[in-house]
Amino acid sequence: MERTAAAAREKRSVGMRIMESDNIRFKSVLVAGLLVLNVLILLFADQVTYTEPRASVFIPLKGIDLLFMLVMGQRTLYGQAGKKPFTIEVPSTVIVAFAVLVVLALVLLAILLAVSFGKKKPAYAFGFVLFAWSALTAAYYGMAITPSGMLATDRMGNQQHFYQVYEMGLSLLVAALVSLLAGGIQLSLKEKAVRRVKRYWFIYCLLLVPMVCMVLFSYYPIFMQTVVSFKDYKIAQGIWGSEWVGFRHFRNIFQNREILGVIGNSIYLSVLRIAVTTLFPILLALFLYELGSKRYRQVLQSVVYIPHFFSWVVIYSVFYALLGNSGIINQILGALRGDGTYYVDFLTNPDTIIPTLLISQVWKEMGWGTILYMAALSNIDPTLYEAASIDGAGAMRKLVHITLPGIMSVVVFLFILSLGSILNNGLEQILLFANLAVRDRVNTIELWVYNQGIGKLDYGISSAVGFAQSLLGLVLVLCANKLSIKTTDRGLW
Amino acid sequence: MKKTKGERAYSLFCYIICTAVALLCLYPLLYCLFVSLTTKQEVAANGGYVTWFPKAPTLLAYKKVLSNTGFVGKALQVTVARTVMGSFLGIAINSLAGYALSRKDLPGRKVFMSMMLVPILFGGGLIPTYLVIQSLGLIDTFWVLVLPTMFSAFNVLIFKQFFEGIPPALEEAALVDGVSELRLFTHIILPMSKPVMASIGLFTVVGQWNSWFDGFLYISQTHADLWPLQTYIMQMFNNMNNLNNPQIVQMMISLQQATNTGADVPEVAMRMALTLVTLIPILIIYPFFQKYFTSGVYMGAVKE
Fold first, then answer.
1. Interface touch A284/B18, C-beta < 8 Å
2. Could you tell me the CATH number of the domain that includes residue A14?
3. CA-CA 20 to 30 A from A165: which of A220, B43, B46, B145?
4. Which residues of A touch B17 (CB under 8 A)?
5. A330: Cβ contacts below 8 Å, ≥ 6 apart
6. Measuring CA to CA, which residue among A10, A468, A30, A493 is closest to residue A253?
7. What CA–CA distance (Å, rounded) separates A396 from A364?
8. Looking at residue A260, which CATH number applies to its domain?
9. How many separate domains does chain A show?
10. Is A225 within 8 Å of B127 when comparing Cβ atoms?
């Protein structure tokens, strides 16, 4: 009896061991697969491109081309600008550095396969080796796109910085990220978790498309913003070939009077905006809450929410009809004056543009802004009001002592959060309302960036301003969140 | 409970104010409708003002706007196409991602979650995004209206939160019974998530329908036939700044030709007719999805 139990135990532990070695192998295959992917990227994606945007000369070189050059011992690149053929020499540093990266990746792959399909299991330290490869690649990439002593000769025979002659493809960065991922898996994926990874393969597939979208449309712009902010962008040289200028744009932000004026404008406008968009919804919510008939309140609520769902284009049209020369506001003002002749185009009048912006903002968002307050109000215990009535409290005292304290934490929370957005006024509304006649009054950061970047193609400074705005905005939101947690126990997450 | 005199007065005051606010929300729309129904003669007879009420309402402006099929028809097609595709793809990928992240024992979940937070807190800015779109070759194509708007980290988080509310025992039971992950999602999870699908779906539809800035920024005037309706209207209002652009001038001329035939409608009437045409779908679906945003699914997630 005892012997059979021991045998069963023995059997089970053998089974466990087989499963465990299975898991180890699976993990190795996963990491090896990423490494293979890495080598494929290195070999078959465009690595460097000889570029001259002005002459529209673009000669991409794949990794395999570079290796081929190394093997054949020739370093010449044939191209054609217009009808003129030319040859240039590819710098040997690039070819050698690239070959080193490929060879290292292959060696790592070999080691991994040898170790994991031999008896031993690969050490976690292998993950750090992969990190090191990733760092090496990133360092090489960084050297290639910055003025770091890597030189190259263009077809005229001028020696220049490498980045001014060649454009680096993003594939090296992608390879570095893949290696980082492989290292991360090697390091942090425990053998026990491998089973779950296997079970969830389908779930990982679900994340694939969103992740690609996110990297392309969120992370890539952030990377681009960082690069362009430190460059003096010239169309003729392209983004990557333009010169690096360090912090010049950022220094400019604080020295350029125009930009400082724009920042001042922005803050002025957003203080007014925050004031009205905080105050009016609170008042409306308090009034709505006081309505005795629940049905009537619901009807009114659905009416006041409607403008939130209109685009700014529609809102602008509506205000165009109301405020234009032939609009009803002019008609009313004319009637008040008595002679019926009042023709002011409020939309092109610099003195009325800010009130117009604020009123349109309030019109669009006032009803929608009441939602969170209404939710807070509906959470107030109704017996409090009954008790207060018995004690002889009037409407005013109930408002001050029950209703307002009931929503205070939501009010403070939303107010603090809106302070976090003090640098952002949003572009859509301003872009529509800011015609040439009133532009100077409402030139906010966003509008300035738009005009400078899209209008004047001055990508460098406009990206830098955007970068500073995003960064300050992030700091402000984080601070606001912290403050809010401290004062109201409510945070964004 | 009897109300005191002061309370009754306050209550009356609230009724008046709230009704007034509701009227202020509705009247401008009504006014736009009236404007779209007036004729030039009427405006002239009224001292240059558009009247409160059109005495002889006419649908001429609508006829003209809608018969100007060259641009309006094209723009309407583009808007419908982008709304359908953008909403469908957006909901599909965001809900699936939210579902994936709601699985608590998914290895690497924390990494994915923190990756999702970055786009919410930090943006790439207008110009760099433009450069990226440009380098991806999306400028002046229809896809620029769909692909960049599909993914929304915010919606993923809302979906995730909803799916986390579904008892995990349900999923485990199904998986033990040998149901595949795909069937689990389509046959068990999906039917349970109607409220979140409906509310995010409707917000996405409205957002896609309303969006004009991407068309304005990424589609140049040489490809004006790819503009969505809202962008088209925006450009019409902006025409003062666009007088030296042949495409816009052509648009204006074709609109004016339409205006000049038969009885006259003022330009502002044409514009209001165009605006109201874009509003109709929103006003039609509004009653349906009102139920969902008041049910708190969406706002509950926003609060978190």
1. yes
2. 1.20.140
3. A220
4. 287
5. A323, A324, A342, A343, A344, B49
6. A468
7. 30
8. 1.10.3720.10
9. 2
10. yes
Residue owning tokens 């004729």: B39
Q: C-alpha distances in angstroms, A236 versus A55, A415, B60, B137?
A: 9, 47, 51, 19
Report the candidate in A194, A138, A169 with the shortest Cα–Cα distance to residue A62. A169
How far from B296 is each of A295, A299, A308, A377, B39, CA to CA, in Å?
A: 18, 17, 17, 14, 45
Q: Are residues A373 and A480 in the same domain?
A: yes
Same domain for A312 and A191: no
Directed axis angle between helix A171-188 and helix A125-145, to 10°?
160
> Given CB atoms, is B280 within the 8 Å cutoff of chain A?
no
Mean pLDDT of A291-317: 90
- As a whole number of angstroms, the distance between CA B157 and CA A263 comes to 33
Beta bridge partners of B298: none
What Cα–Cα distance (Å) separates residue A4 from each residue in A10, A16, A186?
Answer: 10, 18, 39
CB within 8 Å: A292 and B11: yes
A287 to B17: CB separation less than 8 angstroms, yes or no = yes
Task: Tell me the pTM.
Answer: 0.88
User: Considering Cα of A24, then A26, then A29, then A31, what sign does the dihedral take?
Assistant: negative
CB atoms within 10 A of CB A359: 16
Statement to judge: residues A13 and A146 lie in one domain:
yes
Question: Do B11 and A292 meet the contact criterion of CB atoms below 8 Å apart?
Answer: yes
Over residues A103-126, the pLDDT tens digits come to: 999 999 998 888 877 767 777 788
State the complex-level ipTM. Answer: 0.89
B6 close to A (CB below 8 A): yes
Shared domain for A283 and A152, answered yes or no, is no
Min distance B182 CA to chain A CA atoms (Å): 8
Concatenate the DSSP letters of all residues of B91-133 into one string: HHHHHHHHHHHH-TT-TTHHHHHHHHHHHHH----HHHHHHHH
Asked if B47 has any chain A CB less than 8 Å from its own CB, the reply is yes
Q: Is residue A61 left, alpha or beta, with left meaning phi > 0 and alpha meaning psi from -120 to 50?
A: beta
Domains defined for chain B, CATH in brackets: 68-261 (1.10.3720.10)
Phi and psi torsions of A457, nearest 5°:
55, 30
pLDDT in tens, B28-80: 999 999 888 888 777 777 777 777 777 778 888 888 777 765 677 888 899 99
What count of other Cβ atoms lies within 10 Å of the Cβ of residue A453?
Answer: 25
More confident residue, A466 or A18: A466
